[in-house]
From TrEMBL:
GTP-binding found in the keyword field: no
UniProtKB keywords: Hydrolase, Protease, Serine protease, Signal
Signal peptide: 1-25
Superkingdom to which the source organism belongs: Eukaryota
Source organism (scientific name): Rhynchospora pubera
Domain Peptidase S8/S53: 142-594
Subtilisin-like protease fibronectin type-III domain residues: 673-771
InterPro entries attached to this UniProt entry: Peptidase_S8/S53_dom (IPR000209), Peptidase_S8/S53_dom_sf (IPR036852), Peptidase_S8_Ser-AS (IPR023828), Peptidase_S8_subtilisin-rel (IPR015500), Peptidases_S8_3 (IPR034197), S8pro/Inhibitor_I9 (IPR010259), S8pro/Inhibitor_I9_sf (IPR037045), SBT (IPR045051)
PANTHER family linked to this entry: PROPROTEIN CONVERTASE SUBTILISIN/KEXIN
Family under the similarity heading: Belongs to the peptidase S8 family.
The protein's name: Subtilisin-like protein
Length: 775
């Protein structure tokens, strides 16, 4: 026997075995951050929660491994739980542990990226309602708005504390110091600031992003905070555009910023930490302009925003969230839990016009964009359409859309290029970079649909038109030997009609989680909103200093408009629940535009409750709603039963000690009975009858008053309100009624919209409804 050969084979075998075991070990050790959610926090044992969390965590780790080394953060104020670095096997083990509601990988959400308040005041529908500008600052000075966002720029004039009294004594928050932020950056206006440091890539501090500070590096949080509660600042503008007074919805309110986002996104574990601290700090409401995309819609028990909001609302804190920017796709709305006030986006009566002048003394073509063009104001520049500038290797269609790599630089250089654009194309930013690289002097984008959003192109001359207007440009180019044009710098046009219009990007209903709850709830301005911004050297027009303001669009901008309204309502009605406040906002909304015509979408179609919820917010009207639809925590627990959760899971979520259990007849159909200010019924069949229950509470006159119901219903659907009169008195402040839906016509298919309105001659309390027929 040749022992040398045996020895070699044995060594090779041992080496391979060691390699396999090493690889196996590496796979077993592969860890990422998980969130472990354990429901409501016990009210009497917060000091022991961290220790109990460590014990639970240690029970799934390898022997000798310290739980403290894997723990990322601990939640103990609004709810119980923790975030930790775990392997999949360890996470699975925790899911099986008693007392655990859910365990999920830490998701990364994104932010849903002046005159808007003046425009909302013009929408006043009750002349006797106080104007928000006339509300004494003392009435709102003790209202504290918390924001979960990208941070804040404390030096902005929007956050000066001139004229403010002492910080409310109930405030328990802090001003966290960081590498470029200290306690002196807080004041009697900006009363709280927290950030959430981590050593998890890519959220660790870098040369490009300092995560160890509340200071805003993106501008988003500064913009939303000033929209919600910024001071009134005269002479505000974006380099001369949208000039006027910039102000928040509740200028007298205090601000607390919780920086949960960096340039890489917003980790769910940090979002939950922000909610947890905000509950303990004592905020009155939370404005959350961020969320998941429509393509990732987790269950409520695995959604950091839904979890945090549930426990905040249980503590009396109203939570306002953006609906998302994935419109106009149907069923794209996010942040759709029934305890969240979900906000869609609309335009205001302002237009940013950048005209295109063609040669031959032709009439100017009205375009839109934000640019500070330095081109001559006479049409002296050659103009060409993208299709005529195609390269030898590209096709005309792609070139006409100016897709990257499809154009011949020699045909583009020194010219204004007209590019078709549709939603399925490469982004305009990508196209524009390619055109600039080829030496184009300017660009005209011809959009396949109107979107009412003026994009910012800064110093490069760009204007946007719709396809119909582009036909005039193409006719001129094709009929002229040497066509020329110019693009004029942007001007601001006010009193633009119609307004509001639903923003094309605003996410739409129905909710993908339950068709028996109507979302979004409300709409508010979210297009080209002027508000405070961080100093930046990007896009500054020649000869000017960086602007302290910016024009930004998104449901992110709509959300703080409603948060500002909530703060004022809360100040006037401090004992109202978050649900009563939501009801006041929803039932007093308007459904007509500045032309007194029904609201429309950007495409021109009639807006439905899937687009705008109850309608456009009217902040002043919401101060005197007359009636409100209120809810209790028990109502939310019944919702969870009907949604499909079992009693044991709900008991953990609510820390229930009163023996709550789900009714035996729980079903998704019964979600329609949640005492919501809107009504949604799904799966209706011909001749089927559905009855929905509601209760309203009189918060208006304390004298005897009678409300009468009127119904606006579509053909084929019979709707009755029983009783159709409600008589309130000092003894009877809350009264119930039923809405009976009967499907009469089999030809009525799809989503049928209507409304129920209660009125006493002074107050109008409107609730939209949608009845979805069975497929």
């Amino acid at each position: 026997m040749d022992f040398s050969k045996v020895s070699s084979k044995w060594l090779l075998f041992c080496f391979l075995l060691l390699l396999v075991e090493e690889t196996k070990g590496e796979n077993e050790e592969k860890r990422q951050v998980y969130v472990v959610y354990m429901g409501a926090a016990p009210s009497d044992s917060k000091d022991f929660l961290r220790e109990s969390h460590l014990q639970l965590l240690g029970s799934v780790l390898r022997r000798g491994e310290k739980a403290e080394n894997t723990l990322v953060r601990n939640y103990k104020h609004g709810f119980s739980g923790f975030a930790a670095r775990l392997s999949e096997a360890e996470a699975s083990a925790l899911r099986r542990k008693p007392g655990v509601v859910s365990v999920f990988v830490d998701p990364v959400y994104k932010p849903h990226t002046t005159r808007s308040w003046d425009f909302l005041q013009q929408s006043l529908v009750i002349d006797s309602t106080p104007n928000s500008d006339s509300v004494p600052s003392a009435a709102t000075a003790d209202t504290i708005i918390g924001l979960l966002d990208t941070g804040i720029w404390p030096e902005s004039q929007s956050f000066s504390d001139n004229g403010f009294g002492p910080v409310p004594s109930r405030w328990k928050g802090i001003c966290m110091e960081g590498s470029d932020f200290n306690s002196s950056n807080c004041n009697k206006k900006l009363i709280g600031a927290r950030y959430y440091a981590t050593d998890e890539a890519p959220f660790t501090p870098t040369a490009l992003s300092n995560a160890n500070s509340v200071r805003d590096e993106q501008g988003h949080g500064t913009h939303t905070a000033s929209t919600a509660a910024g001071n009134s600042i005269t002479g505000a503008s974006y380099y001369g555009l949208a000039s006027g007074t910039a102000k928040g919805g509740s200028t007298g309110s205090r601000i607390a910023m919780y920086r949960v986002c960096s340039s890489f996104g917003c980790p769910g574990s940090q979002i939950l930490a922000g909610f947890d601290d905000a509950v303990a700090d004592g905020v009155d409401l939370l404005s959350v302009s961020l969320g998941a995309s429509a393509y990732y819609r987790p269950d409520f028990s695995e959604d950091p925003i839904a979890i945090g909001a549930f426990h905040a609302v249980a503590k009396g804190i109203t939570v306002v969230c953006s609906a998302g920017n994935d419109g106009p796709t149907a069923s794209s709305v996010v942040n759709a839990a029934p305890w969240i006030l979900t906000v869609a986006a609309t335009t205001i009566d302002r237009f940013f016009e950048s005209d295109i002048l063609l040669g031959g003394n032709r009439s100017a073509i009205k375009g839109k964009a934000i640019n500070f063009s330095s081109l001559d104001k006479s049409p002296n520049y050659p103009i060409i359409d993208g299709g005529s500038a195609k390269s030898n290797s590209s096709d005309v269609t792609s070139a006409s859309h100016c897709e990257p790599g499809t154009l011949d630089g020699s045909k583009v250089k020194g010219k204004i290029v007209v590019c078709m654009h549709s939603q399925s194309d490469s982004t305009k930013t990508i196209k524009l970079q390619g055109l600039q690289d080829l030496g184009a002097f300017g660009t005209v984008f011809a959009n396949d649909m109107e979107n009412y959003v003026a994009s910012s192109y800064n110093n490069f001359p760009v204007s946007e038109i719709i396809v119909q207007a582009a036909n005039d440009v193409f006719t001129y180019i094709n009929s002229t030997k040497n066509p020329v044009a110019t693009i004029l710098p942007t001007i601001t046009v006010t009193n633009f009609k119609p307004a509001p219009v639903v923003a094309y990007f605003s996410s739409r209903g129905p909710s993908g989680q339950t068709r028996n709850l109507l979302k979004p709830d409300i709409a508010a301005p979210g297009v080209n909103i002027l508000a405070s911004w961080i100093p930046t050297s990007t896009g500054v027009p020649k000869g000017q200093k960086p602007s302290s303001f910016n024009l930004v669009s998104g449901t992110s901008m709509a959300c703080p408009h409603v948060a500002g309204a909530v703060a004022t309502i809360k100040a006037w009605n401090p004992t109202w629940s978050p649900f009563a406040i939501r009801s006041a906002i929803m039932t007093t909304a308007t459904q007509v535009n500045s032309d007194k015509a029904p609201l429309t979408t950007a495409s021109g179609s009639a807006a439905t409750p899937y687009d705008i919820g109850s309608g456009e917010v009217v902040p002043t009207a919401a101060l005197q709603p007359g009636l409100v639809y209120d809810l209790t925590t028990r109502d939310l627990l019944l919702f969870l039963c009907n949604y499909g959760y079992n009693s044991s899971k709900i008991s953990l979520i609510s820390n229930n000690t009163n023996g709550f259990s789900c009714p035996s007849n729980s079903s998704t159909e019964l979600i329609s009975n949640l005492n919501y200010p809107s009504i949604a019924v799904s799966g209706m069949k011909q001749n089927e009858i559905r009855t929905v229950n509601r209760v309203v509470t009189n918060v208006g006159s304390q004298d005897e008053t009678v409300y009468t119901a009127t119904v606006n219903s579509p053909a084929g659907l019979d709707v009755k309100v029983v009783p159709n009169k409600l008589k309130f008195s000092k003894s009877y402040k809350s009264l119930g009624f039923q809405v009976v839906f009967t499907m009469k016509n089999s030809s009525s298919q799809g989503d049928l919209f209507g409304s129920i309105t209660w009125s006493d001659g002074t107050h109008t309390v409107r609730s939209p409804f949608v009845v979805a027929t069975a497929n």
